[in-house]
Design brief:
Blueprint lengths: L2 E2 L5 E2 L4 H8 L13 E4 L8 E3 L23 H14 L3 E6 L9 H13 L4 E6 L4 H10 L4 E5 L5 H7 E6 L2 E4 H21 L3 E8 L8 H11 L3 E6 L14 H11 L4 E2 L11 E3 L2 E2 L5 H23 L2
Parallel strand pairs: 3-5, 5-6, 6-7, 7-10, 10-11, 11-12
Antiparallel strand pairs: 1-2, 3-13, 4-8, 8-9, 13-14
Helix pairs in contact: 2-3, 4-6, 5-6
Bound molecules: FE(8)-S(7) cluster and iron/sulfur cluster.
The site of iron/sulfur cluster has 11 residues, from strand 4.
Length: 315
Amino acid sequence: MPVENSDNQSCPDYSNEQLRMISEHPCYDPNAQHKFGRMHLAVAPKCNIQCKYCIRDYDCVNECRPGVTSKVLTPQEALEKTRQVLKDHPFIKVIAIAGPGDPLANDETFETFKLIKEEFPDVTICMSTNGLVLPDRIDDMLDAGVQTLTVTVNAVDPEIQRQICDRVVYNGKLYKGKEAAELIINNQLEGIKRAIEAGIVIKINTVLVPDVNDDHVVDIAKKMNELGVFIMNIMPLIPQAEYAEWRVPTNEEREAAQASCEPFVSQMRHCRQCRSDAYGLLGEDLSQMSEERRNMVKMETLRKSKTKSNKDKGD
Ligand code: CLF
Ligand code: SF4
């Protein structure tokens, strides 16, 4: 059950193992962002909803910065990439799937995590989702070893949600308008509740859309507080598709939204809106570097690990 902490926030009682995992997760703990990295494996191309700010040619903008679409990997290719990257960059502690579509709409997500967990039992398995099928896939997620999960929650009021997303396909049926908005909100809330009860540590992403959900974010934060969400990441709208002409929130507006939500849920302020194939430190995406620069980072990692091992030996 959620308990109130000294900041007047509800949060579940985290185990020592969960607290260790959080302290090594670059998105969940700002102090971890310069020491520990994450790797995204782009194995999930399909999506089951249509956000009005999304162009499907790009990565899922609920979690990732749109760019050239990430190359989709098979689960076996993802395992091979993980082997190579973890060998060269052992500071990467989190392996995640964040697109390019919705990870829960792709069975390859679960196949990939199972392969990774068998070979690398110590990494943290992370995922992001729009949450539409979250209640249905909790058991699959637990089997696949998911420990940290991001759900994009843009509204808890269907009238606001339908302005951001009003088409979903659920169990093979298309839902539109308010009915679609209600379905996704109900499934997100039910899914988050059950995921927390199952021991998964939850972060939510909220895309701040000026004049649509900016006055509503505090209601989202209050609801997330009741559920026991660990952290909230308010991201600026990236204007695309039906929102191509929309105004981007100013920094001041985003900071005001974060400040209004902070009393209810801790705020993440260091998100880099990374790509669905990003890896490395949050501020140093190795997927976007030249081979030469990558090699320099690799040599530097090797040098640091040798220095540390010599210190440990007392040299
Ligand atoms: Fe990836 Fe997201 Fe896991 Fe982090 S990202 S699935 S919680 S490991 Fe992090 Fe990147 Fe921001 Fe996401 S900086 S876009 S919040
Ligand atoms: Fe696009 Fe992501 Fe929304 Fe799917 S969940 S429509 S991929 S932004």
